[in-house]
Amino acid sequence: MMRRRLLALGIGLGLAGATAVAVPAQAADVVSAPLASSTTAALQVANFWLADEGANLKSATPYAPPSEIRGERTSDAFVPPGKPGQVIPVPPETEGEPARTSGKVFFVGADGQPHWCSGTAVQSQYRNLVATAGDCVYDPSGSSTTVGKWVFVPAYAEGVVPSGLYVGKQAFVHGDFALYRDPDRDFAFVNVYNGLVSSSGTLTSNGRLVDIVGGQGLAFNQATPPTVDVFGYPAGPHPDGTRPYTGQTLERSTGPTFAMRLDTPPADQPAGVDSPFTGEGSLGSSWLESYGDDQGLGYLNGITTGVSDTDGDGRYDTGVSPYFDSGLYNVFRAAAATWSGRVL
Hints:
- The chain has 344 residues and is α+β, with helices and mostly antiparallel strands.
- The protein has one domain (2-336).
- The chain has helices at 2-7, 39-59, 175-180, 209-213, 326-336; strands at residues 30-34, 61-62, 70-74, 85-87, 102-108, 114-122, 129-132, 148-154, 166-174, 188-192, 196-199, 202-205, 217-220, 228-232, 251-255, 257-264, 270-274, 286-292, 297-303, 306-308, 318-322.
- A 6-stranded antiparallel beta barrel has the order 5-6-7-10-9-8. Strands 4-13-19-18-14-15 form a 6-stranded mixed beta sheet, with helices on one face.
- A hairpin with a 4-residue loop joins strand 18 and strand 19 (297-303).
- The termini are far apart.
């Protein structure tokens, strides 16, 4: 049903310099695409972002595809399509250190300019996985191509790279998002190489992502949690023009979750959270259930893909995410079983 509606929009699938996508034989609803498929390419990407004391990181602007959603909150209950499941979070290897999983996703968009979204590290077999919005990996024009020079910088703040830079190697999304931009499937998991740290212009290796910063758990096919904590880097204005966020430091909001009914874009089962985050920069923000401040860990069960002003007062009050179901878990499982390795 959703696929047919989106096809009717006439979304284009071609772009010069396109990165082809592939469908793994074991899962027809999972699409993967290379980001930096060789260590040589990964090193070039890292140098692009870290050269000149991180000049391109500092000059990047918040990604601003259409993110405002028109809809309303409802009292409907989610209907899980399968058995509830969880992946357990893990702390960083440094004993006593809280997790620092949230960070910025940087990339070069179709306009040739550096941009950023939000993202978070998630536990997986090879401890190399980042979760973000699908629109922060695939070109938002509707083409089946990925963005360029994709990297993740956990705990990014004010131009500082405190825990290393992690170059994306392989992206995984749901087939309905890659081909039809289905808003119910606007999520992505990206395998990253081991981290890199720049000192006096020299790059050194920094180990696996989750070993360094920890990894959030994952919850899917769940009932609506009472509250979640949202972490991201909002930067855009409210409809009334006010700008409460700069996007330079990590922001957090806490609120209840609920089902949504959307006027635009069309979606079958979207989730909402009471959150004041604005749209630009906050795409990809993590929704963490059962989050604990002591360890900095919880269970990812939502990713901001848009924001909404549901009461019409000129200020965004709701974040919107796809419902995390079995389809999301299938994408996660394919990404979680993919090794990446070192750049150096």
